[in-house]
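Researcher: Let's do a round of design. I'm pasting the structure tokens now; please hold your answer until I've finished.
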């Protein structure tokens, strides 16, 4: 299934008609440069073009009041003076004779997107719209927003398509207070937002944007605010919050639909956000959400005011929705102290609502005085930056790297009598393997692998890894007589001279004699750092433990390790369900530009089809809803994370005790 793209140049046909410094950044070019970038890169041609439509009164009234709608309806006929007058009642927003028309198109675009995804016409999609929506409230416009596009879409998805649980992820750098107010007592809509906050110093300066506002009544726990109390947040900060807060909770929530308030003012170069995350981060944020809700994801444009980083970020998002390989995120740095403080605060208040977080630490003891010191420091720094303002340095960042689809998406190495699943390209050894390789395989592996077809299998494995390195092949699966031997061979012989770092994810009971990344035998502490045995209660059927292991350990660590190849090994008798297995394959695509090699035992061929489906990029079925939280061994996982965070900074979820 494809990716929908919704855009109409009509939504560029309104602009600010008077002087207002607060609104001058919201220009029509935001939309046109975004769309033109999608055209220029050929991405728009690969999407299913879906036309926008005007939202009806009834649809707008799902969120807004009649008196508000009646007021906005009058704006097309207003004089300039009346428009100014009308605008004065709201904050940081402007009206224009054509903005009502565009606001109906923006909301209608979000609804078209929901229809296309919920009816299965497409898998996912993006709507490029203006005016944005997430600040507008039941009876008020705000922050360039007139109608709350995404809030209307969420209500619509429930009413028209029977969605029971809708997740809204708001990665715009401003707090979508309009969305929070709309759903704060509604447990069927989980709203997650991070936002520049600076201890309430940043617009919209609301007390209720802080981390302790978790929703009300039956909605308690279904509102998650992550305040950024400093600017300059980077990729590592964003990924930490996704791995340690949003994703575990999202998987426990198990939504039927994911809506994204896709604002790109959280990218580097944006005058509003003043953050440092690069445009390719949105490729990963999108990817990390794509295995929820069976892949049903609707991204709706919100903010983004640096035309360069906006266009790049839009392209990164759409390219991921299309299923292209993820870009390598080089040198993901550990979260900064301020981000860790926010992370710890959010987890500590949310833990009482989400069993996945129940082992989270208490809030940090930053007593009032520390905060006052911080604010005082911030004040004086602000004074400094004030004078620096004039010489405000232009942010520069590298153009995102090309993300080339390999000629062959997925390949297989199989015994001659095994059937090759649809869509996979079977690798046959074209020529005789190099004698050197044969000798290494012979003296390395067990006797049965040393015989003729064992050598053939291993030489095909070598070819497969070689072709992944050159990006001729994206990923692959091999059925081998002995997975343990094959794993050692890949890591020791094949992997090591083809890629510099191999992330080995071994699913099953086996105790492994591990080899560190550099292939040397282990010294005790090396073993500690590069060998992370995670034991799940009830084997691999333990969903809670699986989610904690994947999001609390594997993904953060993988982003920090930045491997050139992922080796996913399914030990015989592992008992891991197809659903979890497909989720794992889907999530691991975020590393090594999607170069994953799956090793399975020949007699484990039953799960070849789900494996092939995941390797080909089909969305994984949702994990079953976590109704009764299992007596999970989250404690053991938390203790392991504590131990490992000394080596792997991305595992941190609390401020360093030292400070
Ligand atoms: C959709 C959105 O979240 O990007 N709207 C942002 C509104 C910002 C209002 N304040 C502007 C002050 C100018 N320096
Ligand atoms: Zn914004």
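Researcher: That's everything. Go ahead.
Model: Designed sequence:
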């Amino acid at each position: 299934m494809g990716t929908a793209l919704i855009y109409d140049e009509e939504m560029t046909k309104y602009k600010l008609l008077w002087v207002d410094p607060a609104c001058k950044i919201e220009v029509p070019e935001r939309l046109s440069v975004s769309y033109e970038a999608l055209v220029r890169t050929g991405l728009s041609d690969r999407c299913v073009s879906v036309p926008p439509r005007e939202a009806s009164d009834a649809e707008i009234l799902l969120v807004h009041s009649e008196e508000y709608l009646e007021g906005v309806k009058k704006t097309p006929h207003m004089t300039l003076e009346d428009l100014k007058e009308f605008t004065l009642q709201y904050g940081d927003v402007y009206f224009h004779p054509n903005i009502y028309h565009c606001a109906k198109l923006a909301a209608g675009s979000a609804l078209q997107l929901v229809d296309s995804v919920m009816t299965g016409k497409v898998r996912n999609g993006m709507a490029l719209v203006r005016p944005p929506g997430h600040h507008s409230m039941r009876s008020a416009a705000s922050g360039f927003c007139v109608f709350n596009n995404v809030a209307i879409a969420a209500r619509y998805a429930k009413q028209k398509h029977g969605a029971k649980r809708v997740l809204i992820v708001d990665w715009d750098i401003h707090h979508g207070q309009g969305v929070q107010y709309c759903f704060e007592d509604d447990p069927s809509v989980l709203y997650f937002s991070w936002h520049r906050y600076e201890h309430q110093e940043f617009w919209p300066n609301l007390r209720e944007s802080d981390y302790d506002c978790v929703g009300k009544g039956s909605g308690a726990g279904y509102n998650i605010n992550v305040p950024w109390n400093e600017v300059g947040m980077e990729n590592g900060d964003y990924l930490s919050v996704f791995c340690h807060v949003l994703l575990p909770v999202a998987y426990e929530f198990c939504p039927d639909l994911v809506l994204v308030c896709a604002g790109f003012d959280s990218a580097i170069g944006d005058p509003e956000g003043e953050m440092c995350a690069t445009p390719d981060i949105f490729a990963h944020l999108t990817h990390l959400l794509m295995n929820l809700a069976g892949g049903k994801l609707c991204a709706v444009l919100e903010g983004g005011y640096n035309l360069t980083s906006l266009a790049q970020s839009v392209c990164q998002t759409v390219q991921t929705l299309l299923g292209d390989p993820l870009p390598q995120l080089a040198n993901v740095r550990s979260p900064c102290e301020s981000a860790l403080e926010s992370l710890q605060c959010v987890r500590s208040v949310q833990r009482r609502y989400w069993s996945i977080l129940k082992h989270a630490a208490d809030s940090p003891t930053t007593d009032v005085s520390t905060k006052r010191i911080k604010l005082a420091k911030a004040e004086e720094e602000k004074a400094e930056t004030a004078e620096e303002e004039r010489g405000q340095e232009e942010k520069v960042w590298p153009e995102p790297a090309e993300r080339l689809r390999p000629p062959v998406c997925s390949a297989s190495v199989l015994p001659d009598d095994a059937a090759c699943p649809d869509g996979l390209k079977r690798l046959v050894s074209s020529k005789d393997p190099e004698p050197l390789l044969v000798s290494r395989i012979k003296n390395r592996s067990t006797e049965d692998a040393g015989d003729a077809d064992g050598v053939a299998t291993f030489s095909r494995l070598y070819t497969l890894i070689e072709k992944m390195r050159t990006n001729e092949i994206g990923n692959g699966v091999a059925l081998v007589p002995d997975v343990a031997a094959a794993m050692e061979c890949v890591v020791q012989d094949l992997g090591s001279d083809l890629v510099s770092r191999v992330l080995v994810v071994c699913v099953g009971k086996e105790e492994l004699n591990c080899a560190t990344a550099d292939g040397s035998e282990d010294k005790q502490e090396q073993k500690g750092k590069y060998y992370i045995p995670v034991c799940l209660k009830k084997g691999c059927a333990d969903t809670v433990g699986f989610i904690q292991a994947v999001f609390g350990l594997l993904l953060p660590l993988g982003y920090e390790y930045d491997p050139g190849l992922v080796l996913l090994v399914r030990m015989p008798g592992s008992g891991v369900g197809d659903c979890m297995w497909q989720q794992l394959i889907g999530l691991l695509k975020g590393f090594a530009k999607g170069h994953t090699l799956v090793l399975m035992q020949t007699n484990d061929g039953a799960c070849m089809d789900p494996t092939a489906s995941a390797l080909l990029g089909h969305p994984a079925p949702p994990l079953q809803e976590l109704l009764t939280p299992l007596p999970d061994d989250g404690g053991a996982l938390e203790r392991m994370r504590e131990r490992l965070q000394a080596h792997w900074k991305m595992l941190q979820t609390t401020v360093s005790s030292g400070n």
